[in-house]
Design a protein that fits this description.
The chain has 168 residues and is α+β, with helices and mostly antiparallel strands. It has helices at residues 10-24, 56-61, 132-140; strands at 35-36, 42-45, 69-78, 85-89, 98-103, 118-130, 154-167. It starts with 9 loop residues before the first helix and ends with a strand.
Length: 168
């Protein structure tokens, strides 16, 4: 090998980049099956700790990132590919306040047909500006960003869930 040269070919670099991109997209691991709570709800992730839930509107009005929160609302949308995110809203109607829910460490997903269900979600609030590539990826899966900027980025309040209860 010549000094200053990389020990791999350009095709190797392309393969490495493709592998990294695949890892950052919806994870393809098989996810654990849900359990059923005593009251008949489907539980994904960890059991929820006892806590009085707040509304999505209350979460969006004061997104406190300091402590875990429990939020209850309607599942307006869910990832149509793998169930790796869902949109929790005040109601299933478009135009009502909503926030995207992701799942801690991609440790669990929800069914791709979760839209229309009721949900109680427990997790940590994050406020972030998503890069244009991430916004485009989520839009391809059905997400809508009210605060999308002309450059394609979007500011969002997101809930990173440790547990989700779903029922109809």
């Amino acid at each position: 090998m010549l000094p200053g040269r990389f020990p791999f070919s350009m095709s190797g670099v392309r393969l490495l980049v493709a592998a990294l991109l695949a890892l950052t997209a919806c994870n393809t691991r098989v996810k654990p099956a849900p359990t059923t709570t005593p009251d008949g709800k489907k539980l994904y992730g960890q059991p929820l700790a006892p806590a009085a839930p707040i509304t999505v509107a209350a979460l969006l009005a004061r997104p406190d990132t300091a402590a875990p929160v429990t939020v209850e609302g309607s599942v307006r949308k869910a990832c149509t590919r793998k169930g790796c995110w869902m949109e929790l809203a005040e109601s299933p109607r478009e135009g009502t306040p909503g926030c995207r829910v992701t799942f801690k460490n991609y440790g669990f997903f929800v069914p791709t047909d979760s839209a229309g269900a009721r949900a109680r979600v427990q997790g940590q609030v994050e406020v972030d500006t998503l890069p244009a590539e991430a916004v485009r990826h989520y839009e391809e899966e059905g997400a809508v960003f009210a605060g999308k900027q002309p450059d394609g980025t979007a500011k969002e309040v997101r809930l990173v869930a440790t547990g989700v209860e779903l029922w109809r």
